[in-house]
Amino acid sequence: MNQKTNLSFWQIWNMNFGFFGIQFSFGLQQSNMSAIYKYLGADEGSLPMLWLAGPITGLIVQPIVGAISDGTWSPKFGRRKPFFLIGALISSIALLLMPYSNTLFMAASLLWILDAANNVAMEPYRAFVADKLNEKQMSLGFLMQSFFTGFGITLANFTPAILVSLGFLAITDKMENGIPVYTYWAFFIGAFASIASVLLSVMTTKEFPPTAEELLVIQEKKKENLFKTVAKDIAEAFRTMPLTMKQLIPVKFFTWYAMFCYWQYITSSLSLSLFGTTDQASEGFSKAQLLTGSLNGTYNIICFMVAFLLVPIALKIGAKGVHFIALSLGGIGLLLIPFLNNTDVLFTLHNPFGNNIPVTTIFLYSFGLGISWASTMAMPYQLLAGSIPKEKTGVYMGIFNMFIVIPMAIQILTMQYFVYDWLGNNPINVIKLAGVFLIIAGLLTLFITVKNKNQIVQSE
Predict the structure, then answer these.
(1) Fold held by 9-445
(2) Which of 82, 243, 260, 386 has its CA at a distance of 20 to 30 angstroms from the CA of residue 357?
(3) Distance (Å, whole) CA 149 – CA 327
(4) What string of DSSP letters covers 305-344?
């Protein structure tokens, strides 16, 4: 039996550092894929379908990888770490190739590969925390992942603007396919971050070997057909799904429907509301793309700044109380976007390399969204972790993440075929819908059954 002793802060830091590179990759997608699609000829109405890669690959990959990793053990490589490495390597290759896309088909195909690789790397990371940490430190482990989510996506979002503001590249520099040169360099940096951060985690963290009973189960599974075993494990996990997990499903539906609306349409929304255009060839659209990166970077700065502050708050009012407040603040922030602008300056940041950077009112919504994002990356997993059996952590985390990607797939289909028309073909209205949905998700959080304020899940 492996005794889970307390790990030091830096041990928990090192084991989760690979999450930084995975989220850097996701950050590049969130802020740049809609713009890349538009540079290659897509219109706003077709954007949702072009984002289909994420939900479909997540839906397929996450529960399968979770089930396989539960039944994997190598004395040399461990249980979860081989998946981190494989995913990060493939992700890095896809990131390097993405800016060279010359057709929508090529860009969409690379996004499928990129999302599949990121899911292979990310899903076992959730189980990794549950494997390594005792109940006392589990909140810190998941919030450390929330910190690296914010930190990685922040750097990914700010990288293009930094390259331009420091004078390394001009906003008008374009590749032959119309994609800005700053996008290429951001993706190149992301490829390095993805593989380097995962390597650091793999080299500095050891996994617990399985117990004699677990090893016997693993050996028996190796004798069976892999696909039948995985299908059996997934079906059994669905059949015995804990009550807490069932109650989190509607919360995750409205949360992730909203976030996909935001990522798909924030650039077009800003371009229309601040610069009066959605023409991808205009300078206004290029400015909106850079501003999207800065705004997304800001909400992720808030994410990693507040991530650790949520621990004592969750102990005082409970994880579901924190999640309710956080999602509500995010929703209010998105609803405020049409009333904010990029001309009224709140304060100015000193820039030693050039002109000072004005921070305008449009950045205000990022504060609420950042708190919401920090909670989304941690609190649902904290609520779930105590309700699932240890030997099935991987498959349950994979199934739980399916309830992230299913809302995304539903969002794509509904937005593509009737919601966008219903909203007047106006990207600003899509952002308003996202705000309403985050508030609904927050309210639904209050109905989750827990035993006490520390979120020990009620026994069934």
Answers:
(1) Growth Hormone; Chain: A; (1.20.1250)
(2) 260
(3) 17
(4) HHTTTHHHHHHHH-HHHHHHHHHHHHHHHHHHGGG--SSS
Please give the single-letter amino acid code of residue 396: Y
Q: Are 303 and 155 in contact (CB under 8 A)?
A: no
Q: Domain map of the chain by residue range?
A: 9-445
Q: Is 425 left (phi over 0), alpha (psi -120 to 50) or beta?
A: left
Number of neighbouring beta carbons within 10 Å of residue 418? 10
Is the full-model pTM beyond 0.85?
Answer: no
DSSP secondary structure letters along 369-402: HHHHHHHHTTHHHHHHHTTS-GGGHHHHHHHHHH
- For the chain, the 3-state helix, strand and coil shares in percent, each to the nearest 5, are 75, 5, 20
Q: 12: closest CA among 150, 124, 153, 132? A: 132
Closest CA to 81 of 193, 164, 199: 199
Q: In angstroms, rounded to a whole number, what is the distance separating the alpha carbons of residues 365 and 330? A: 8
In this prediction, residue 62 carries a pLDDT of: 67
Give the model's pLDDT for residue 227: 65
27 three-class SS: helix
Name the amino acid, one letter, at 130. A
What phi and psi, each to the nearest 5 degrees, are found at residue 174?
A: -125, 150
